[in-house]
Amino acid sequence: MNHRQALATIILLAAALDLRAAEPGKLRFVDPHDKTGSSPAVVVDGLALAHTAQLLPLDGQGKLVGKGDPDAQIQQVLNNLEAALVEARSGFDHAVKINVYVRQAKLVPEVQDALFWRFKNEVRPAVSMVESALPHPDAVVAMDAVAGIPKGGAEVKRLRAATLSGPRSGSHVAVLPAGPHVYVSGQASPKGDDLAQATRLTMESLRATLKFLELNDSQIVQLKAFLRPMSAVAEVEKEIASYFGNQPVPPLVFVEWQSDLPIEIELVAAAPVPKEKAKEPIKFLTPPGVQASPVYSRVTRINHGKLVYVASLYGKSEAKPEAQIQEIFGALGELLKKTGSDFRHLAKGTYYVTDDETTRKFGELRLKQYDPRRPPAASKAQVTGVGFAGKTITLDMIAVVP
């Protein structure tokens, strides 16, 4: 084989590798970290996705495992996550995103160490961290996950794992079919006199948004609630169960926030495949009677394209909100570029902040980053902490490769 033939062979092999990487049903881990078992971003191409509920360190009878033993609790939560994913014909070998909720930031290194040992192969999911009170008073950690389903179905399914505990009406995991879906930004009802009433009114508001989108309750894949106080979470669960009636309740996730409002709820839902392929991969929507915002969309509809799940991003600076935010946006821009996406194709954002000054600065600076005609759907919550000392904000994003 001469030099020219060898070069041609190398080019053909490289093209074949690129083709395999672009085939539907693949995950691509961007800049994976060997020491943490995670990646800054994961690209999903053509896969149905399993979305779990927020799972606690409970055994099959609902009893806490490892009271006073963080490592035992972390391992139990990871075991529960895997059991839920297996129920949806997925598993950690297709993990895309893991959202971690810790009672105290000092637990983050232990969680990272556990993830390192669980993900020692080529799979490196994106990971987010936030400090929050948890639905069980003695739990110190909880998690929910998103994972690919190699042979996913064409409809939403809400499933229970026989080995996991929880209300019989609830789901441990739900299947989001590959294809169109929507992210609805957090909605809240200021008219609620108490947490239960506010939950009921908020769910009715979400139903009106789904009706505008020509969707219904059966297409909801996951609900995430920002509420206060966490000690009253049972009231929220009861109201949501009542709302769904005889339907299985979608997987639920809870975060305690600091707000004048008792609750805000966001959701992910499947959408039907249109008769004609949309030109744009994302459509940014505002329901009637609701004022549009230049910094977030009320709804984003994913029409087509690869999804990009971004891990929690942090600035390098400490105690300087403006610097942290600018550094985060800089890192996000570089990361999106590596995936083939950009700021104009951000679909969903979850923003966690710890104080009023950071909230104000973030409001100012994101105006400079987002196209006001197409900002992502988003929820912003002021929380106890974002996982690391000295950090006052973290961003958790989903984008689309156009």
Q: How many helical elements?
A: 7
**How large is the radius of gyration?**
21 Å
* Helix residue percentage: 25-40%
- Give the SSE string: HEEEHEHEEEEEHEHEEEEEHEHEE
Short description:
The chain has 402 residues and is α+β, with helices and mostly antiparallel strands. The protein has 7 helices and 18 strands. The protein has a 6-stranded mixed beta sheet, covered by helices on one side.
Topology:
Layout: H1 3-22, E1 26-30, E2 41-45, E3 48-52, H2 70-87, E4 95-102, H3 108-118, E5 126-131, E6 141-149, E7 157-159, E8 173-176, E9 181-187, H4 195-212, E10 220-227, H5 233-244, E11 252-256, E12 263-270, E13 282-285, E14 299-302, E15 306-310, H6 321-339, E16 346-353, H7 356-369, E17 377-382, E18 393-401
Parallel strand pairs: 4-5, 10-11, 16-17
Antiparallel strand pairs: 1-2, 2-15, 3-6, 3-8, 4-6, 7-8, 9-12, 9-14, 10-12, 13-14, 15-18, 16-18
Helix pairs in contact: 4-5, 6-7
Architecture overview:
It contains seven helices and 18 strands. The chain starts with a helix and ends with a strand. It has helices at 3-22, 70-87, 108-118, 195-212, 233-244, 321-339, 356-369, and strands spanning 26-30, 41-45, 48-52, 95-102, 126-131, 141-149, 157-159, 173-176, 181-187, 220-227, 252-256, 263-270, 282-285, 299-302, 306-310, 346-353, 377-382, 393-401. With 402 residues, it is of the alpha+beta class. The strands form three sheets. A six-stranded mixed β-sheet has the order 1-2-15-18-16-17, with helices on one face. The longest helix is centred in the N-terminal third of the chain and has 20 residues, at 3-22. It has one domain: 60s Ribosomal Protein L30, Chain: A, CATH 3.30.1330.
